[in-house]
Amino acid sequence: MKKADRVFGIIGLGLSLWCYLESTKFHYMAQFTPGPGFMPFWVGVALAVLSTCLLLDTFKRKPSKLDDKKILPERHALTRVATILLLLFGVRFSMNILGFPLTLALFTAAILSILERYNLFKSIGIGIAYAAVTWFVFEYILAMGFPKGFLGI
Amino acid sequence: MEVLGNLLSGFAACLTAYNLGMAVLGAFLGTMVGILPGLGPSATMAIILPITFGMDPTPAMIMLTSLYYGAMYGGSTTSILVNVPGESSSVVTAIEGYQLARRGKAGTALGLSAIGSFVAGIIGTFALAFTASTLAEFSLKFGPSELFCLVLLGMFTIIYVGGKDVTKSLMSMVIGLGLGCVGTDIVEGQSRFTYGIAELLDGVDFVILVMGTFGIAEVLESAEEFMKIEPMKVKFRELFPSLKEVWQCRWAILRGTFVGFGICCVPGSGPTISSFLSYGVEKTVSKHPEKFGTGVIEGVAGPESANNAAVCGAMVPMFSLGIPGSGATAVLLGGLILYGLKPGPLLFVENADFVWAVIASMFIGNIVLIVMNLPLVPLFASLLRIPYSFIYPAILIVCIVGAYAVASGLFEVGLMLVFAVCGYLMKKADIPAAPMLMALIMGPMLERNLYQALNLAHGNVLVFVQRPISATLLSILALTSIFVAVKRARGGRTVQEAEE
């Protein structure tokens, strides 16, 4: 956990610098009131102080059981999480090309076949079923206007 | 008497077929969420929120609130039958509940937890009606400087009482405040942190943040491993505890109700803390504390009553002051804003029909839940046999749909995924996401009230200490902060570590 705290502390310092730089683009004060730069400035200051405290704490504190805890899971679990995230980002970028139902059907089928080791035909079947139900509820009934792909749906 | 009159008018408003249908739907979804491990009530409410955009605020809020306390009812089922809590407030139920189940008394434990939840829900709702309206009436005297101090106090109380690492929680809160700065500022109308992205001009939508950091991040954590659950079988006739057992638990239920409601009126405490406290109280007052851990029915009835009463308690600051008491009430508060309502003391004045209808619906929701939970527990328990591998893709799809629904654009879907990655890493690093969410909602309120207070006082910053209520609130904040700082300096690193 010490390692995680250090990484988070450094990220916090980076974010605080970003907030400070952003705040300099605006007025700190208006006539009587704080200006647009006031809040980002103090967010930056607070984050810098807290990040420094967290970083210093990692050097100062006595080792505890929490420090032995691994931040990220085992390789197998991490692969599962990374695959899901990759597929999710795939959905984001392919929806305009493939359309809403086809993207969701492929997404579900990919999760079930790649990660859960289901038979390909079963995965595709479940994927189509999920996509059909979602399309029926959200597009057909609620008319949410999802992106259409090359198939026209 | 005025409260009773308002409650009656609330019943008149909420007793329509549509509103009742929403209460039943919310209760059903809540029970399912409570039963199925891997998704909490906050995440589910956030996922469902965009779907309710087109609805009238009253039925939408009725559905969301019944989902919230439905999750408290349902959470006990998995704790008792499989020793895997469906959500965090049922962790303590597993200690005694599972032992009772192993002794063949699963039905008794489930029945007592449902009865305790029902009694606590009804008493808690009465207490909510009286407390929230009184507090709202008092807080009508608040001006911008008082509201600024109140929001500040609320935010810090959430951190101090929340029981997590204070530094990390504060960092999470400050990041949330930073996210609240994104968009057009209220003073000069300038764009901050937008970098020419038009979608960011209105700021970061809290729904996107919740679905990413709570919804998808929770799913990612649950999906790390294959999840296989084998629940114990319960028969319908075994679900009703004997009158002797119910009578034996009467004080545990009342104590749990009192502890749960009282504790959760303080922002930040939440149902989990109250259920643990209630368990501690039961163990302390018991004539046989040594038997705790072996299957004591008071150890189930007390905490289960506490977590249901806590839901009502957490709604007191939300309805009366516009301050969320927990992650779940932060989502509800965000919902109020999205529906175009103004959370805070004026809610009871400007939207009295809405507030009383929602409070009245909580009585109905509790009745629906006890009817649903006692006879249908075997059916709900059978849901646990559905493989998680079938459930999580569906949750992810609903999240994608929900994010898209916020602004009918894929930018929000991408932003949600970025928050999901951050939320997952924050979970791994033990950084709570709830303060960030609360700060995102309350940050703009804080900035607006600061701006208004200083504008009215012609820039005099002493306005915050010259007015008695704001000075009192600031003093409480200062004293609490000193207490926390001293405690931290003396007694080790965190409250959480001390607990562990």
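The CA atoms of residues 204 and 284 of chain B lie 46 Å apart.
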